[in-house]
Design a protein that fits this description.
The chain is built from five helices and eleven strands; from the N terminus they run βββββαββαββαβαβα. It is α/β, with parallel strands linked by helices and about 240 residues long. The strands form two sheets. The chain has a six-stranded antiparallel sheet, with no helix packed on it. β10, α4 and β11 form a beta-alpha-beta unit. The model has no long low-confidence stretch (mean pLDDT about 95).
């Protein structure tokens, strides 16, 4: 397994609780839209076994042409050991990156694409939208729907509706409005629905979509194949 150690080159305060850590790109490190990676902090591999409390599975919120690996995460006042250490890191500090993979690349099947996310889950979709803006081939249109009760919505400079590019961005701050909108979007029985958020959020969205007649193969989750079956199997 290749472990890359790389320096933080910039820390962006997205909101009062959300930061993006921009990390130098190692020379042979590559990824695609919708990728996640394992982010590890100093000391994670100092013992006989990896210290899992110093490792997290994180989405990459940038594309390769941005020349930095972006990790966007929410850090609350009361947080884990990992987030506490992360919060105190500075430009120039090193982190480790390994096991990078994409479960949710942008599908180009001449269909409408719907991006459903909760809070900082929007970070997973930022590269998909940028990729679409660069090359819209075989995607009819994209609609993003994000729920964030804090109302500190992320990436509003990118997630804003652009009719010319057939891109619509929608933000809501409560569950009732959110799930009503999901039902409305599910009127498109041929669309592709991406969902990113907590496991509970995934289950609730899948239930709503399935009730509206959306098939499992139309639902994209940031999960490995073995876990996909658990989420998408219905009696």
């Amino acid at each position: 397994m290749q472990i890359y150690w790389a320096k933080i080159n910039k820390i962006i305060e997205e909101t009062s609780e959300v930061k993006t850590f921009m990390i130098d790109c190692p020379e042979d490190f590559t990824w695609e839209e919708g990728s996640h990676t394992h982010l590890a902090l100093e000391g994670f591999n100092a013992g006989d076994k990896p210290n899992r409390s110093l490792i997290r599975h994180m989405s990459i919120s940038t594309l390769p042409h941005e020349n930095s690996i972006g990790i966007t995460t929410r850090i609350r006042e009361q947080c884990s050991e990992f987030k506490t250490i992360l919060r105190n890191l500075e430009v120039g500090d090193e982190v480790a990156i390994f096991k990078t993979h994409s479960n949710v690349p942008l599908k180009r099947e001449d269909k409408n694409v719907y991006l459903l996310s909760s809070g900082v889950g929007l970070a997973t979709f930022r590269p998909l939208v940028l990729d679409y803006f660069q090359r819209a081939d075989n995607v009819n249109q994209i609609h993003s729907l994000n729920i964030d009760s804090s109302r500190d919505f992320l990436f509003t400079n990118i997630f804003e509706s652009v009719p010319d590019k057939k891109f619509t961005a929608q933000f809501v701050d409560n569950r009732n409005n959110y799930y009503e909108e999901v039902k409305n979007l599910a009127a498109d029985k041929d669309g592709i629905f991406y969902i990113v958020g907590s496991d509970e959020f995934l289950v609730q969205n899948i239930d709503v979509l399935r009730e509206q007649g959306i098939k499992p193969e139309q639902i994209m989750l940031d999960k490995r194949e073995n876990l996909l079956t658990e989420f998408l199997t219905f009696s």
